[in-house]
Amino acid sequence: GFILLLGFVSGILPSWHISHYQPIDIVKGSFRFYSKMVLGRLFIVVQNVVTVTMLTAALVIWLQLNLLIHAPLGFNTEHLFYIESPEGKSQTVRNLLEKMPFVERIGCYQGSTFTNYNISGKGVKNSEGDYEMLMTTDLDKEAFDLLGLKIVRDNGATNNGYYLNGEALRLLNYTGEEKEMVWGDGEKDLIAGVLQDFRTVNVLEDVHPMAIRKLETVDDPNFLVRTNGDKQAQKTFRSMLQEQGIPEEDLQYYALSMEDCIAETFEEQQNTLKIITLFTIVAIIISVMGYVGLSLFFIRQRRKEIGIRKIMGSTSREVGLLMLRTFCTPLLVSFVVAIPLSWYIMRDWLSNFSYRISLSPWIFAAACVFALLVAVLSAAA
Length: 381
Fold this sequence. Notes:
The chain is an alpha+beta fold and 381 residues long. Helices cover 52% and strands 16% of the residues.
């Protein structure tokens, strides 16, 4: 419908405009056209409102995505990779990892990861005798330190005891004073202490109840690896695992970047940013074409005036400023319209996130300044 309306308006307006002129005047050469550029200025206002709104949207979405991906989760994620070993090849994989120059530290784990992959759990009795499900994982001291988990209460139990996070205590109705817990199969384990709550997957996810066992050694382990930030690390890890017999289509599950796993959960927002960026670029290109066309029309229409001004001593700079003043008023009008419009749209979009940026004035100022620079440079060119 919009395309049809645009096509109709694009055709009818020029036709209506041309119908006002007498063909005989054009034939005689006596026709002279002078316009106040009302439609041109209206075009500047509308186009610049669209451009500023799109620029603001792209900037806000990028800032929000950056905030979500790098938000503190309660544990370390920077340059950390989960490397899952093929069955029976743990020592081989570790030896290969140790030889890689970009690998800084290696820890061992078995069980749930802190991503949306490889989740395992176990039933445990709460204080009322009902069963609840906890996510479980085993870590050696190196992996525990790499994740940077914070112990808020240490019971001193070192013999295969489990650390529970605050959400697990709430789920089980524990006070934190308990010394042991009973699994669904009747087996008992010591409670080694309490961990500060942390969010797995991403900052918008609820805190999951977890039981983490800190062991001296982990049997048949997988590995938590910290690199120096080398961009080729993940590719190298996957090549190594492929040589160990992992099918190519499964490699993404065997070598996981924690930062990439967080970014993956915001794929919808990233696609939105790509679309907005594309339309922003299109809007800027249309704006540049419009400004160039209008400036050429302005010069052609007022060439006699410009010539007289030149004869009277005006410089090219002064003539250029005269032309820019013609565009400045509609630009300022467009800013007055675009700022509240973009603020309303982006405030509504940000309301979908519990953890979000604030709409600072500098965001709108940056979009307006960029649009102004595009207009000035286009007209000046």
